[in-house]
Amino acid sequence: LSPGAKMGCFTFIKVMMILFNLAIFLSGGTLLGVGIWVKVDGESFLNIFGALSSSVLQVVNVSYLLIVIGSILLVIGFLGCYGAQKESKCLLMMFFSVVLIIFIAEIAAAVVALVYTSLAETLLTGLVTPLLKEKYGVDKSFTHIWNVTMTEVHCCGLNNYTDFNNSYWYETQGSYPKQCFGVLPPLAHPHLCGCLLQGCFKQILEEIRTNAGVAGGVAAGIAALEIAAMAVSMYLYCRLDDK
């Protein structure tokens, strides 16, 4: 290619890099704002987006998850957008490094999720079960989130109803949450343990397996975007030496 054509190609890719990362930056800001909203007023958030309550995000603390993801996207968007605009090799290399680290972490997480499902369940149990025992029935937003989740997914607790044993709710109410009981036969006692539903983790895991094709397609799309972003940043980084 002629020098003019090379410069035109460089300028086009630079502009695309700026616009792409500006979109990432704005998306990160949006997610960060939503995460703060959920943290401050999670009940009203669920009232608006109740249809999403069967999502796996309801198992963990969705507010912190959105805040973390939003913050990461803000950093990535800033590094990519400002680095391309200023033609800074340092910022472009930082952008490449951050995306590469996230890409490797996603691959590692996918391998752990596929190969060590029991380990993932153990980790979630260690994090979520203590929260159920301490905050369910105490924290209004936390309780509402779990009530909606258990109602929509038709489940009880993370592993099963025993997650509520020795909990604040069980100690004060003397029973498990009403969402834990399935459809009872006529004249059955309402607190028969045989009628208690399975844990939410198993139910959501089954939903994920049922929709594995969609989840895999989304993951592949994200991975492709990350590879493309790394390739473009390296192209700009290397082309700066020729200017």
Automatic annotation (TrEMBL):
Cellular component aspect of the GO annotation: lysosomal membrane; plasma membrane
Gene name, Swiss-Prot/TrEMBL: Tspan1
PROSITE patterns hit by this protein: TM4_1 (PS00421)
Keywords: Glycoprotein, Lysosome, Membrane, Transmembrane, Transmembrane helix
SUPFAM superfamilies for the chain: Tetraspanin
Similarity-based family: Belongs to the tetraspanin (TM4SF) family.
Function of the protein: Structural component of specialized membrane microdomains known as tetraspanin-enriched microdomains (TERMs), which act as platforms for receptor clustering and signaling. Participates thereby in diverse biological functions such as cell signal transduction, adhesion, migration and protein trafficking. Regulates neuronal differentiation in response to NGF by facilitating NGF-mediated activation of NTRK1/TRKA receptor tyrosine kinase and subsequent downstream signaling pathways. Plays a role in the inhibition of TNFalpha-induced apoptosis.
Record organism: Atrichornis clamosus
Membrane topology term: Multi-pass membrane protein
Subcellular location: Lysosome membrane; Membrane
Domain of life: Eukaryota
Transmembrane segments: 12-38, 58-79, 91-116, 214-238
Keyword Chaperone set for record: no
Pfam families attached to this UniProt entry: Tetraspanin
Subunit field text: Interacts with SLC19A2. Interacts with NTRK1/TRKA.
InterPro entries xrefs: Tetraspanin/Peripherin, Tetraspanin_animals, Tetraspanin_CS, Tetraspanin_EC2_sf
The protein's name: Tetraspanin
Main location: membrane
